[in-house]
Automatic annotation (TrEMBL):
It comes from Meteorus pulchricornis. One of its GO terms (biological process) is signal transduction. This is Odorant receptor. InterPro entries: 7tm6_olfct_rcpt. Its main location: membrane. The chain crosses the membrane at residues 61-79, 124-152, 195-227. Keywords: Cell membrane, Membrane, Olfaction, Receptor, Sensory transduction, Transducer, Transmembrane, Transmembrane helix.
């Protein structure tokens, strides 16, 4: 039951992000404006490009480090039950455990049904990967805005006004326009993601609480087993304790 709730909360968080990506007009408009910043004409010299690429490199680095780890972790999480099933296939009392605890309206009682349902749940791995993809997108957009602010600071520090030309108004006008555009990007990013981030905060709090409950319960079960093993209590009492242990393990696993 507990693990089922954990998976449900996680999947709901990911699906909420996908809905926002699909139907958010502000996010679409923001991405289109950021794409315009990737052209060479938008930067006055090589130093401005270096400032932006410094922030862009951090976004690429996070993607390169996190994405393989998430893909590997999601794949191993998905394959763990079937690997256990194959290794214990000779056991007549084995159970058919699916990677995700979906409520089924029928019993999985044979290998053919088990493998069919296993393949049916394979797209859920994509949802787990999408969670990290959303984080990568958010970090990329935040660092993009940071890069634009860094370029703006560089421009302000290098303001030079020719005394023979009265072009100070046009120079400051360009700086103000660029500053206002960067502020608009930051405000749009906040308006697009504030609900998703709030939902993530609530969901992550629930996940941490449930995982802490699972850890504490497993520790209590291990302590009970240790007590029975080394204190050498009576057989009837020990049998009762082991029944409680087995029931507790099933409860923790959500079986």
């Amino acid at each position: 039951m507990v693990l089922s709730v954990l998976e449900t909360v996680m999947q709901t968080m990911v699906l909420t992000k996908l809905v926002v990506f699909r139907h958010s007009g502000m996010l679409r408009k923001l991405i289109l404006h950021m794409k315009k910043d990737l052209t060479d004409e938008y930067y006055a010299d090589d130093e401005e490009k270096k400032i932006y690429l410094k922030y862009n490199y951090l976004a690429k680095l996070y993607y390169k480090l996190s994405m393989p780890y998430i893909v590997l972790g999601a794949s191993l999480y998905y394959l763990r039950p079937v690997i256990t099933y194959i290794l214990t296939s000779a056991d007549s009392n084995q159970t058919y455990i699916l990677p995700f605890r979906t409520k089924l309206f029928f019993d999985v009682a044979d290998s053919r049904t088990y493998y069919t349902m296993y393949a049916y749940q394979s797209p859920m791995v994509y949802l787990l990967i999408c969670h990290n993809a959303w984080i990568c997108l958010l970090i990329t957009m935040v660092l993009h805005i940071c890069g634009q602010l860094g370029i703006l600071e560089y421009k302000i520090r290098r303001i030079s006004i020719d005394k023979n030309k009265d072009d100070s108004q046009s120079i400051f006008q360009q700086l103000v326009k660029r500053h206002m555009r960067t502020i608009w990007m930051a405000k749009t990013l906040d308006d697009t993601f504030h609900f998703v981030l709030l939902f993530d905060l609530v969901g992550t709090t629930i996940l941490l609480g449930l995982m802490s409950y699972v850890v504490v319960t497993v520790c209590l079960i291990n302590c009970t087993y240790y007590y029975n093993l080394y204190e050498k209590i009576s057989i009837p009492r020990g049998s009762l304790c082991f029944i409680y242990i087995i029931s507790g393990i099933k409860h923790v696993r959500g079986l």
